[in-house]
Every structure is written in structure tokens, then in C-alpha cells.
Specification:
The complex is a heterodimer of chains A (113) and B (111). Chain A is built from no helices and 11 strands. By secondary structure, chain A is mostly beta strands. The N and C termini of chain B lie far apart (36 Å). By secondary structure, chain B is mainly β. Chain B is globular. Classes of the chains: A mainly beta (113), B mainly beta (111). The interface between A and B is medium-sized, with 27 and 28 residues.
Amino acid sequence: SQQGEEDPQALSIQEGENATMNCSYKTSINNLQWYRQNSGRGLVHLILIRSNEREKHSGRLRVTLDTSKKSSSLLITASRAADTASYFCATETLSGGYQKVTFGTGTKLQVIP
Amino acid sequence: EAQVTQNPRYLITVTGKKLTVTCSQNMNHEYMSWYRQDPGLGLRQIYYSMNVEVTDKGDVPEGYKVSRKEKRNFPLILESPSPNQTSLYFCASKNGDQPQHFGDGTRLSIL
């Protein structure tokens, strides 16, 4: 089963509104990353948050991490049409000296101009 | 320019005909990984490599092989492709606990 599960699966908002996406996971993690993917293209890294951090900001992006609830959220403020894309969370775990990265199923965001 | 390069970008082939998708990175990254992306399933890890000559299975390794003879290259080999391996494939690389850099993807269709 997927380590990361995003919620909602799809989100449609008006330009200027905020968009919030959530990610839940099952096991202890080393860090959690958020990526963006435009249709049919490769993934682009947005923010990495480590297990000992609770919140990070980057421009219009805000990520929170609650390790007690095993969940994270990505907030995009003042959304733009260009933010239309799929967003994925990915958890990194360390096991026996090996790093394992597991992606969720993604949230498809549509920002309507 | 720092990048991960995959080839080919698109391939249509037939069941059973061996194929290799190449992946090369120019960032001296130690960690490299292959994923497949299918509708509704997100990205699933096929194989990953922590360093040269060190590879390990991801979540969906069946039907795939990899090798890591040199740091910059991590080819994905389908010895006997089947239609259920039709998918969009991504190669990625990173160092330590840094985020991954992704290639642009390879769309494989196996008839």
C-alpha cells in the first residue's frame, strides 16, 4: 500500500484563492517532500521538511508536518492559473542503511482564471 | 546545466522484445532511482541504487533489471516486456537526504 496518501484527489479553485492539500503516511520518516508535476512532465521539487521540523515556507508555499499524526499539508496562497498541476508528497525512510522514497497518489489541482 | 537525461522519451514495442531505457545524471549524485507512473497509482519505485554496484528492489521490481556500473548511469532493462509494463517511467537522482532531481520521463507502450 502507498506510504503517502494525498487528500483530496482533485481540487478546483478560483484564481486568488488558497489551496490546501494533505498527505498522510504510515511509518516513521526521515523527511517528507512535496513535488509538482505538470501534465506528462517530470516532477519538480517544491519543499523538503525534515522530521524534526514543523513548518517551512517558500514564497507562496507553506508546508506543515505533524509527526504525531503522521500527516503533512501543503498550502498554496493566492493561487494562479499557472499553479494548475498535480502535487505529490513523498516520504523518505531509512531502513538498514538504505534510503527508501515512497510517493503518494497525488492531488490534481485546477486553478480557474 | 544540472540534469537527469532519459532515453528514449517515447517507445512503442512488442511483447518479448528486450529493451533498455538509459538514465544519466551529471551531478555526481550517489542515489539513483527508477519509478513508474500509472493513472490513479502515483509513482511507484521499481529499483534504486545507493551507489555504484549497490542496487535494491523498490515496491514493483518484477519484470525489471537494473545495473549501476558507474556513478552517472543507471539503465533500466526489460528483458521480456509485457503489456502490463506499458507506463510512464521516470529516473531520478539525489545526494544524501536532499530532494530528487527527475528526468523528463519515458513513455513506453508494449503491444
